[in-house]
């Protein structure tokens, strides 16, 4: 057995943090980081993966060492899973499944660069990929409808193709101000830095 993997725990709720630390302490394969040490893995424990949690995940991933992130959530639907993965989470677990052995396995998988998800969630994501992001009957899947509107998707696709604001406005018959507002709304909603980041995020999340 090699050296234990140094891990830190991040949670917005101190009770969730304490429970995760306790579970990790039962596994000899991992250890808590000591002062001055950088974690190789961060275990982030949340109730639901919403905007505040998305911001925390991105902050963790933007640190100098860019540690792998294992996300443990009370509930995770397909849309939340896509956003988490697109933002840098390596492994996803539901809290009810995150006993000490499974949590340790997820940490070790994250260190190896593997991506692990609950089987039913993986099946859901694969079904989404197979049907082009649409649910039965050709209706857009709920997460996709909430992610980008048709208008936003059209604008972002043109941004991805390298078109400027004026070109997009002329092609789609919008004012330049409308195009600017649409792009601004997208960057604010997904907490991305600029147009290029918005395109990269949308592509990784399967929104384009």
Give a brief rundown of this model.
The protein has helices at 14-24, 51-61, 78-86, 100-112, 119-130, 142-147, 150-160, 165-172, 176-189, 195-204; strands at 5-11, 30-32, 41-46, 68-73, 89-94.
Largest sheet: 5 strands, parallel
N-end to C-end Cα span:
43 Å
Radius of gyration: 19 Å
Corresponding CATH architecture of the largest domain: 3-Layer(aba) Sandwich
CATH superfamily of the largest domain: Response regulator
Q: What is the number of helical segments per DSSP (H or I, 4+ residues)?
A: 10
**Helical fraction:** 40-55%
Mean pLDDT: 83
Number of strands: 5
The CATH C-level class name of the largest domain: Alpha Beta
Provide the number of structural domains.
2
Per CATH, what is the topology of the largest domain?
Rossmann fold
Strand content: 5-15%
List low-pLDDT spans. 134-146
Globally, the shape reads elongated
Side by side, the strands of the main sheet go: 2-1-3-4-5
SS-based structural class? alpha/beta
Give the ordered list of helices and strands: EHEEHEHEHHHHHHH
Pfam families: GerE (PF00196)
Keywords: DNA-binding, Transcription, Transcription regulation
Protein name: DNA-binding response regulator, NarL/FixJ family, contains REC and HTH domains
Domain HTH luxR-type: 141-206
